[in-house]
Amino acid sequence: MTARYPVSRPRRLRSLPVLRSMIAETSVQPRQLVLPAFVAEGLSEPRAISSMPGVVQHTIDSLRRTAVECADAGLAGIMLFGLPEEKDASGSGALDPDGILAVALREVRAEVGDELLVMSDVCLDEFTDHGHCGVLTDSGLVDNDATLRAYAEMAVLHAEAGAHVVGPSGMMDGQVGVIRTALDAVGHSDTVILAYAAKYASAFYGPFREAVNSSLSGDRRTYQQDPANLRDALREIELDVAEGADIIMVKPALAYLDVIAAARAHTDLPVAAYNISGEYAMVEAAAANGWIDRERAISETLTSIRRAGADIILSYWALEHARR
Ligand code: PBG
């Protein structure tokens, strides 16, 4: 018998589309996707966000319609960010039952019922005039424990307004525990906590600042994580699990695929990842210049985040991708 070479031919399984799809290890299903959405107070028309082409600040009406589209497309959820007309030092709009986020949650929940998970961002940065995620001490640092009291109140407000899932994103120490305790105390023991466990101080949040009309000067390095650190992420995850998180999230996604993989190995809770504004903007900008194939780049991006170990992806492409 003649020696045959090469003995192994991996290309054999790549030769036909049906073969390739039969052995595909990873897929991105609509139910694994969540659309983040911005809703602004006092808008009469949706307003474009220039650094995120295709994403808008919604009116309540356009948000309601988008939520229905998400439900129809089979998405898992919609994550709401509220933009108040007036911001102040304590972010008081965040605790107002008639504030934009509470109103939007009630409206969206009434529209979609339990067909789509209604999720809320629990953080003060959209509501503070200084743009930080919490209230400040006299010396200008973010006051951890005073901020925790606001988060607990905010989470309860969101649950009462109809949120199925609350997402504390401010990186205050102890935020998951105080929110769990506060929710349970008023009978919302079924409200899910999606904990932004490992959230890095990232340059890739840039376009989000425009999206939420943020006035932040400086950065968030005294509370968000240093991009140099992996073990710090595992420690944050452990703390959030101990405090009662139901799902833990890694954010951003693309520059942190190793963190997603480590998170997946470190906990048995579902792992979410946030494919953030700067990741969106990079692909959209390159595609607009004709430098990359937009649809393939989107699909490859979402697939890579799933392959790294994320069960759930928050992405501005969620609705478009689910429809494809
Ligand atoms: C904080 C929050 C941010 C994002 C989500 N929640 C901004 C930040 O921490 O600076 C960023 C999301 C994105 O960039 O798409 N409320």
Give a structural overview.
The chain is of the alpha/beta class and 324 residues long. It is built from eleven helices and ten strands. The chain has an eight-stranded parallel β-barrel, surrounded by eight helices. Strand 5, helix 4 and strand 6 form a beta-alpha-beta unit. Helix 2 packs parallel to helix 3. The protein is globular, with a radius of gyration of 21 Å. The structure holds ligand PBG. Ligand PBG binds next to loops.
Compact overview of the structure:
This protein has helices at 17-22, 60-72, 100-112, 144-161, 175-185, 206-211, 231-243, 257-266, 277-288, 294-308, 318-323, and strands at residues 33-40, 47-48, 56-58, 77-83, 117-122, 165-168, 192-199, 247-251, 271-275, 312-315.
What features would you highlight for this structure?
magnesium, eight-stranded parallel beta barrel, EC 4.2.1.24, 38% helix, 16% strand, 11 helices, Delta-aminolevulinic acid dehydratase, 324 residues, alpha/beta, single chain, binds ligand PBG, globular, TIM Barrel
